[in-house]
TrEMBL record:
This is Nucleoside-diphosphate sugar epimerase. Residues 8-132 form the NAD(P)-binding domain. Pfam families: NAD_binding_10 (PF13460). InterPro entries: Ergot_Alk_Oxidoreductase (IPR051604), NAD(P)-bd_dom (IPR016040), NAD(P)-bd_dom_sf (IPR036291).
Length: 252
């Protein structure tokens, strides 16, 4: 039996990774800011981090925050993992972090570099965006009477449970460095994905395609966040929507 620490183990991905590893009979410690007995804020570190990592064979690093602090968190985690003699650090990243100059992507890439230079055995898995994230974005964009979308952008959403399964599999193996990227089953225009969301939630909104400026937008238009040659995911966005929202609702 392997002892594994999952950071961000109460989050969208982390809780599924934890569930999968425990189902396979492994001892799993869940680290998050509020999860006892390993309630640790990785951005500040502290003695609780050393206790969480002590005796651990593998760390699966899922914790991330759009509010910032991921680089500091990674530095604290790597330091604790070194002190504890952890043999394997597995990290979840995003396809395109080295090609799309978005602030959050730059941070993910910086964390990748820290892990690669850590001296630890490491595995990095990059995936396309989760269905959940796309639904959250559409929920916000659908609030006005007109739904504005970045013009000419496609996406390749992937089912988070499938990512959890792959990440757990990698965590249980030896360090492989950069694992093969993982993409959802279909590259779709944002317009078609938005229409699927509107249909599933019973909303009626005209779509407005808005050209944007900037290098990040050009990167998304060029498809640098996609991996069509590695469309290994199986669950479609429509299947996710059906499971989450059920049947169609009256238009609103």
């Amino acid at each position: 039996m392997t002892t594994i620490l999952v950071t961000g183990g109460t989050g969208t991905l982390g809780r599924l990774v934890t569930r999968r590893l425990r189902a396979d009979g492994h001892e799993v410690r869940v680290l998050s800011r509020h999860s006892q007995p390993y309630a640790v804020d990785l951005r500040t570190g502290g003695s609780g981090l050393d206790a969480a990592v002590a005796g651990v064979d593998t760390v699966v690093h899922c914790a991330s925050s759009p509010r910032g602090g991921d680089e500091q968190a990674a530095g604290h985690l790597i330091g604790a993992a070194r002190r504890a003699g952890v043999g394997h650090l597995a990290y979840i990243s995003v396809v395109g972090v080295d090609r799309v100059p978005l602030g959050y992507y730059r941070t993910k890439l910086a964390v990748e570099r820290r892990i690669e230079e850590s001296g630890l055995g490491w595995t990095i898995l990059r995936t396309t965006q989760f269905h959940d994230l796309l639904a959250q974005v559409f929920q916000v964009l659908a609030k006005p009477p007109v739904m504005a979308l970045p013009a000419g952008v496609a996406d390749q959403p992937v089912e988070v449970a499938e990512v959890a399964g792959r990440l757990a599999e990698l965590a249980l193996g030896g360090p492989v460095g950069r694992a093969e990227d993982m993409g959802g089953p279909q590259v779709r225009s944002l317009e078609s994905l938005a229409r699927a969301y509107l249909s599933a939630t019973g909303r009626r909104r005209p779509l407005l395609r808005v050209p944007l400026a900037g290098a990040a937008y050009r990167g998304f238009r060029a498809g640098h966040h996609l991996t069509p040659g590695l469309a290994v995911g199986e669950g479609t966005f429509e299947e996710y929507l059906a499971a989450r929202f059920g049947g169609a609702h009256p238009g609103r």
